[in-house]
Each structure stands twice: as C-alpha cells, then as structure tokens.
User: Which sequence fits this backbone?
C-alpha cells in the first residue's frame, strides 16, 4: 500500500508557478545591465541572500581545494570525518556496512545527532537518498560525489530548517563543485600502508573545461573519477594488534575447533577424516578464524559529473548539472558454523511467526558418528560454502534551470530528477529448506543424555549430515548441493525524487543604514522509496536473516522567505520563515532570527535562534516489514554468571591432569559460554507507526569573530540544539536492560526461553568439567536465555547538545622564506543528553564515543615551489560506559569482566600527518602525504575489541603509517 498525497493545484504550487513565470518574463523583457566595477557578491551556505562577507550571522566552515589535498583523503566521507564538528565515530560507511541494512553506502552527520539531521547539498541543492535505508534511517551516500570535482566544502554548523528544510536540524554540508574551469587536468593517486603494505587504494580522474564564460558566453565542465580499494583480511594485519588489547582476552589468537570438522564426545572426541595433519592440535582439527574475516572490503566506483552554464543574453543564463555514479562493494563474511550452539530464532515475514533453527547432535546410528555414543556433537565449519555479499549501487542527478537579473533582482528556477538504485546479492547463509534437503530435518530431535555433550539435542535421523546425495561434512560437494544449501538471496532498494524550485532575491527598501534585501522562493518535491527482498527472504527461508520492505511515496511543498535588514551601518538582522507541508501532517512553520553586529572593523558578534523540525521519513511512517538481528547484546540476567562459569572453565582447562583433548574441549566450551550470554544475537521485529509526530528542534548560537591584526582571525561560537519527539527505537541493549528491571516501555517486549536445566545451552545441572556441580545453583541462574525482542517506532526521546566551536586562521609572510599559515578547527562539547540512552540529568559527554574535545591544528609552510604542512589531530578520551543504565561497563561491570578501571576508559587519541607538494615542473604537481606519521596506536578500546575476543584489532593499528602519492598534470 502506498503512502502518498494526490497531486493537485494547491496554493503553494500556484505561488511557485507565479514566482517562476514572473521572474522569467521580467528577465526576457529586461536588457542586460551595464557592468559595474564592484566586489562580486556570492551565496554562502545558510542564506539565500548574496553577500560579500564570508563571515555571516551563522558560523560556516569552509574547506578549500588545497586544504582537501593536504589531508590525503580519497573520498568525501573521510574528509567530513576529519572535521571537528563531525560525529564520525559509529557512522555507517561502505567499509563497515557488511551485515547492515544499507551496505555499500557512506553517511555523514554532525553534532552526534545522526545522518537524518544533517543535510547534504551539492551546489545548494539536494542529492538523492541512498537506495537502501539503514534499517529505518534514510541518508545521502556521499561516496557518489567525485572529490576531484570539488572546489570547496562549506559546513554550516547551526540548524537551517528555515532555509533548506526539515532535515537540516544539526547543520548543512554544501559541496561546491569547480566553476568556469578551462583546460584539461589529470589526477592520480595511490595509498598504501607502510606497515603491512596492504590497505591499497587507487584513484584517477580527468577534468576538462571548455569555454570561458566571460569571453565565449559558455562554460562546460566534465569530470570522470575512478576509485578502487583492495580487500584486506584480518589475518593479514592481526599481528599489529595492540598488546594491551590482547591482555584483556585469554582466548586471543586461539584456534577454533569449528574447522574441517570434529566429533566432540569427551575422551572419544576426534577430528573428521581429511583434516590437514598440521592443523591437528590437542587431538582436534583447528582453524584460524581471522583468515575468513574481512577488515576492509574491495570497492570499485566510477563517478561522472558535468555542469554547464550558457549566456542566453538579456541578463539570462541557463545552467545544467548531470551526475552519475556506479559503485560495487564486495564483502566477504565468515562461513557458517555448526555445533552445540544456542538455537537461532528469527521470523517468517509473510506470516509474522517466529522460527527456530536447532543445532543437533548426531544419533548413535549415524554413519558419520564414530564415537560409539548417542548425541555426539559435530563441530563443523562449512569451509566450502560461498560466503559473500556483492553490492552494486547507482546514483544519478540531472537538473536544468535558468537564472538572471532583473534590475537589482536576481532570480533562479530549476527542475530536476535524482535517484538511487542498489542491489545486494548475498550467499553463504543456510536455507531452511535446503538444510532439510541436503543435511536433515533440524526439527526432528530428542534431548540427549550423554554427560559428555549435555548441551545439545540428538537428531533422530540416522542419515543426519549423511543424506544420500546430500552434503558431505569434510568431503567434496557439488555446486548444486552448495547452491541448494546456501542459495543466493537478493535485496533491492530504489529511491527517486523529482523537484522544481524557484527563488528571487534583491533589495526592496532603502534604510539610512542600507538596503533591505529579501529572498522569496519555494520548492515542490515528489519522493518515493521501494525496498524489496527475494522470495526466500520474504518467507523466512534464510536462517537468521530479516527483511526491510516498503513501497511509499509523498509530495512535499515548501515556501520560504528571508530578509536582511541593516538596522545600523554595523548591525544587521536576518529573519527567515519557511512553510513545509507533508502529507498527513499539519503545515509546519520554521522561523529563524539571526543578527550580525560589527562594533569595530576587527570584531564581529553574531547570533541566531531557530525553530526546526523533521518529518517522519518514508520508512518510519509508511507500511513496512522489518525483521532484523541485533548482535553483541549482553544479557544482564546471565552474562555475569556466564563470565564466572567461563573463567572457572578456563581454570579447569589448565589442570595438568587433563589430556590435551580434554583441556581443549573445556576451553572451547568456556569460549562458547561467554559468547552465548555476553554477545548474543537476538531476533528483532520492528513495526512502523503512521501516528508518529514530527521531531521539533530549538537551536541557537552566539559567537564572535576577532581579527585584531590583518591575517589573524579567531572565531568562537557557542551552539545549543534541543530536539523533542525524536523518532527512533529504544536500543536493543537498553530494552533488555530495562526489561530485566521490569521497566519495558509500551509497545516493546523482551521474550525469553523457559528456563530448562536439562537443555540449557550454557549452564548444566551436572557439569562434568567442574566436578558435577549444578551451575544454576552455584552461579544463581534463574532466567532462560534471550529469544526475541519486539520494538515499535516511537517519538521516543529528547536530545540536547551544546558546546563551543573554536577556530583560528593565521598567515604571516616570511619574506624570502615564503609564507606560513596556521589553521585550527576544534569543537568542545559541553553537554549531550539523550533520553533513549539515559535521563536528562545524565550528561553523556565523556561516555562511550562522545568525547569532550576534538580538533586539529594544521601548520602550512609555502616556500618557493614547495608546500609543506603538519596536521596534528586530537580526540579526547571517554569512558566505555554509555550512560548510567549501561551497567555492563560501569566500574562494577568491568570488574566482573576482570577489567581494571583504566581498561574501562578509552584514552585520548593523537596522530600527526605530514604533506608536501612540489610545483617546480611546469603544469605538474607532485604530492606526498604521510598519514599517522609517527605510527601512533589507537587508544585501547576493550568494548569495541570485545571481552574474550579471539582475533581483530583497531583499524588505526592495522593501517599504521599510511603513504599517499599523487600526481596532477594540467594541459593548457
């Protein structure tokens, strides 16, 4: 069922049509104005009124082309992540997207308020939303923007709903492309780790410009960009793991008994035939997990961008923009496991009913079971399974328009279409029907009574894992068998938007202090989103996988006005008002009032106050189906007990009286117990809510710009944003924590399995490894394991944040030794509250991933044909605890995991980058960037690493010192 508004002639549409037509008629009736010698006014992000002053009433950070080159970044995502106001930690990127609902895309956000509150523009207009939603989050994929076509990036660090619309609560990132470029320019660069000689990234582009607008009356720019990144497996870089991380895990580096195959049955345990003898340790076949775990996926992208401007005469100009992007990201996932694991619970989206996949032990009569016991566990890794997720995405934007001047008024109108389509093809997860066909019916079982394998069930089928013509554990299997057991499943996403906009700006009245300037405009936009999944996902046939489906569209209408009123020669007031109309919601007004006061030539004081809002997106409010899995959930009723049991099992495994096989089995069980309860994968069913209210926001800023000496400018801006009715979902961990104390919110449920001491996957009522003790009594286990959570989209919370943006730019002439510059970009966050995480009395600044301070200082020395720069990057430390309710990572929780108070905190991170470029050869620029010059290791983050982790490291540690070499040649 589509969620849409019927198209009709409304007052807003009529006003837009009149605005556009009147501007065009006046333009053709007006002859070109005589050119005056004056300083050209330009649009600065955050206003629809031109200005000659880059320092406006709203704080705007400008990153110029040469500043981008000095950072050695190869994409927009990394560029924005390097800014102080960016909340890059935890953002979705195409590197981290495997297993998410939006693989292959990269989002950006400001102020820790999420991608949906940060508006991304190219030349002042929106780009398409990514074809996939990140579960319920709709975002712009910045990987589709070719960085070599960028002239500068302007970041508005205050809300701008009154200017740009409802999704600009946290700020705006406006990417300005190169204008009036002539000639041909070729650029190529390559990047690689000097430590591991991996993490290879290569990029090449060609930019061509034709025509000089001033002399020829036209200019056309064309840019083509090719990007390639090589895959890196953790096994390639595991050796660079910080020793301080390894010390937190007694299991680190341990090989897994989930391998070519092992029969687990006490003293009768043995590897399956065919195991490589070099991999047999302690009498069992072992496997290195890291060799099938990907740190960075392979990626290939081709971006095309073109813009043209044409002088039509009479003060009128035509313009066009065309952007096309195609990207392919190839993810590799660990292959499936089989053993005495907790049952997997997921759901059938077509019926809404839960499903359970049971891991069964082998019956006594099963030919593969050579132990002579009933219920022996087969511990197996499907090493021959295809296991990949290939994501192919396209994105486009095509627009055309007219702009011109009528007397003192500038006008502009444009229409366009933009969209994104993404296809994700995955293989490597069990098909329920395929498993039954090729291996056996996992629903046919009875509890075993074998004390050696008391944590599993027995298959009643004597041909389990031995079906005629079926899958052979440890043997050769045909492509037909593998494709039946592990079929392909496909998810597709498509977004599209068509728009028309128009605006007119200019002076309307003269005051003693100057002219009042006004901007009036509006926009019509039609948005649609279609998310779909293959039939085997829709029917729940892929074990453990969910879906995200929607088919919805809507019309959005908006009108806005903005005034610049010079109250005094040195004091201007800028009021603005925007009207947005979304279907099924009342018309919403977003007002803004800003002011700029210049008491002296060297001092400017600025302030702004704004009310904004964000309407529910097409996923949050439209009919949709969502089933997912939340991984890494700690069970507050069973994790501490499981940790104690795991520690006792590791102690027992070190008993010298045990055989190597017995010790290996006990250690393997210790690892499984920890994972079963302290890093649980929980099925998660989410429902949309058509009754959602829009989010509302109040934001204000107050700052000053001080330039006591020409060339030395400092700005300090205080910001405050208060969001109410924030749409979202209570976090899975928080929901589980609340349910443990009896505080489950309305519309949400935590479902647990009944406590069954005879069939529990972690604890035993007669534990042979610990002298036959009753684990339930010894460790106080009174609750069954987690089975499923159910959540509903809600206006769930309130968020408040405030802080200071501090910037400095200085420039000195060193005479014959060139010029020297300093650039400081920093943010000090004072407060951050989020009631979906904690209470409004719990300031989350200093808690997990929210540091007080982040910033960079860049020193640039230009000398003759060389430009050198040093960039010092700093991110403050924070606690592992994510708010007071996160008891798993407070001091007591850390102590329960055998962690010290120091290990329960992430220290500050400091890195240094160096760049040098040489222009001594005509038309040629050579560049060298060294990122993380001193190979500084990242601060220890035990939470991200994982308690009991068996492999892995921080990406910064894995990359070490990175080298980027670039060459740029300009043909004249």
Assistant:
């Amino acid at each position: 069922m589509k969620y849409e508004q019927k198209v009709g002639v409304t007052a807003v549409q009529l006003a837009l049509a009149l605005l556009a037509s009147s501007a065009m008629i006046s333009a053709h009736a007006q002859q070109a104005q005589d050119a005056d010698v004056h300083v050209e006014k330009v649009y600065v992000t955050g206003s629809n009124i031109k200005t000659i002053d880059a320092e406006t009433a709203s704080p705007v950070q400008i990153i110029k082309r040469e500043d981008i080159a000095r950072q050695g970044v190869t994409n927009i995502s990394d560029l924005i992540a390097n800014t102080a106001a960016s909340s890059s930690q935890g953002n979705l990127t195409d590197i981290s997207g495997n297993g998410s609902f939006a693989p292959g895309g990269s989002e950006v956000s400001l102020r820790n308020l999420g991608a949906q509150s940060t508006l991304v523009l190219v030349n002042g207009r929106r780009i398409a939303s990514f074809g996939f939603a990140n579960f319920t989050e709709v975002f712009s994929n910045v990987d589709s923007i070719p960085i070599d076509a960028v002239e500068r990036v302007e970041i508005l660090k205050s809300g701008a709903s009154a200017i740009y619309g409802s999704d600009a609560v946290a700020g705006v990132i406006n990417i300005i492309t190169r204008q009036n470029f002539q000639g041909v320019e070729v650029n190529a660069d390559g990047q690689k780790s000097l430590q591991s000689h991996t993490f290879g990234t290569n990029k090449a582009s060609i930019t061509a410009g034709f025509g000089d607008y001033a002399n020829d009356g036209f200019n056309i720019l064309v840019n083509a960009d090719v990007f390639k990144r090589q895959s890196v497996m953790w096994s390639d870089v595991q050796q660079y793991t910080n020793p301080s991380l390894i010390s937190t895990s007694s299991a680190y580096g341990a090989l897994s008994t989930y391998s070519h195959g092992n029969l687990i049955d006490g003293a009768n345990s043995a590897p399956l035939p065919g195991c490589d003898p070099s991999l047999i340790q302690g009498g069992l076949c072992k496997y290195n997990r890291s060799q099938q775990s990907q740190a960075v996926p392979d990626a290939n992208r081709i971006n095309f961008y073109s813009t043209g401007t044409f002088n039509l005469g009479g003060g009128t100009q035509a313009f066009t923009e065309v952007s096309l992007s195609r990207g392919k990201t190839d993810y590799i996932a660990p292959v499936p496991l089989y053993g005495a694991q907790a049952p997997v619970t997921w759901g059938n989206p077509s019926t809404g009913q839960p499903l359970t996949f049971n891991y069964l032990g082998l019956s006594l009569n099963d030919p593969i079971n050579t132990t002579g016991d009933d219920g022996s566990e087969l511990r197996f890794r499907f090493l021959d399974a295809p296991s990949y997720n290939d994501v192919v995405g396209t994105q486009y934007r095509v627009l055309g328009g007219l702009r011109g001047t009528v007397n003192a008024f500038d006008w502009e109108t444009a229409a366009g279409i933009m969209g994104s389509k993404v296809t994700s093809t995955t293989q490597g997860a069990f098909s329920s029907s395929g498993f039954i066909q090729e291996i056996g019916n996992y629903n046919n079982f009875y509890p075993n009574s074998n004390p050696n394998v008391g944590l599993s069930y027995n298959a009643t089928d004597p041909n389990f894992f031995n079906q005629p013509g079926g899958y052979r554990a440890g043997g050769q299997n045909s492509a037909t068998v593998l494709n039946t057991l592990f079929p392909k499943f496909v998810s597709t996403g498509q977004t599209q938007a068509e728009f028309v906009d128009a605006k007119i700006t200019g002076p309307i009245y003269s005051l003693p202090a100057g002219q009042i300037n006004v901007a009036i405009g509006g926009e019509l936009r039609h948005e649609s989103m279609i998310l779909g999944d293959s039939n085997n996902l829709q029917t729940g046939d892929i074990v453990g996988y969910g879906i995200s489906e929607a088919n919805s569209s809507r019309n959005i209408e908006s009108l806005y006005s903005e005034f610049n009123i010079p109250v005094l020669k040195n004091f201007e007031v800028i009021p603005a008002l925007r009207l947005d109309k979304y279907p099924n919601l009342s018309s919403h007004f977003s007002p803004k009032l800003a002011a700029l006061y210049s008491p002296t030539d060297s001092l400017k004081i600025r302030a702004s106050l704004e009310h904004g809002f964000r309407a529910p997106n097409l996923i949050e409010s439209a009919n949709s189906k969502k089933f997912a899995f939340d991984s890494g959930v700690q069970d507050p009723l069973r994790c501490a007990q499981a940790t104690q049991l795991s520690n006792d099992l590791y102690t027992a495994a070190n008993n010298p009286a045990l055989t190597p096989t017995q010790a290996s089995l006990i250690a393997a069980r210790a690892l499984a117990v920890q994972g079963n309860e302290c890093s649980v994968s929980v099925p998660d069913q989410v429902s949309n809510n058509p009754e959602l209210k829009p989010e509302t926001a109040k934001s204000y800023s107050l700052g000053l710009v001080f330039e006591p000496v020409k060339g030395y400018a400092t700005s300090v801006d205080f910001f405050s944003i208060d969001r109410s009715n924030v749409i979202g979902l209570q976090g899975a961990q928080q929901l589980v924590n609340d349910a443990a104390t009896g505080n489950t919110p309305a519309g949400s449920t935590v479902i647990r399995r009944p406590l069954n001491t005879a069939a529990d996957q972690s604890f035993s009522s007669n534990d042979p490894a610990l002298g036959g003790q009753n684990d339930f009594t010894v460790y106080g286990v009174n609750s069954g394991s987690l089975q499923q959570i159910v959540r509903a989209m809600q206006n769930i919370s309130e968020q408040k944040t405030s802080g200071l943006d501090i910037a400095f730019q200085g420039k000195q002439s060193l005479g014959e030794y060139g010029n020297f510059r300093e650039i400081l970009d920093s943010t000090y966050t004072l407060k951050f509250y989020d009631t979906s995480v904690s209470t409004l009395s719990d300031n989350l600044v200093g808690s997990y991933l929210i540091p007080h301070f982040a910033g960079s200082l860049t020193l640039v020395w230009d000398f003759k044909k060389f430009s050198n720069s040093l960039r010092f990057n700093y991110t403050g430390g924070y606690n592992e605890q994510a708010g007071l309710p996160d008891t798993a990572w407070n001091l007591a929780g850390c102590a329960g995991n055998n962690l010290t108070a120091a290990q329960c905190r992430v220290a500050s991170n400091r890195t240094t980058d160096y760049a040098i470029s040489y222009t001594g050869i005509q038309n040629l620029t050579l560049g060298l960037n060294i990122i993380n010059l001193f190979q500084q290791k990242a601060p220890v983050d035990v939470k991200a690493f994982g308690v009991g982790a068996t492999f892995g490291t921080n990406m910064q540690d894995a990359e070490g010192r990175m080298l980027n070499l670039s060459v740029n040649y300009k043909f004249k």
Notes: The first strand starts at residue 60 and ends at 64. Confidence is low (pLDDT under 50) at residues 1-38.
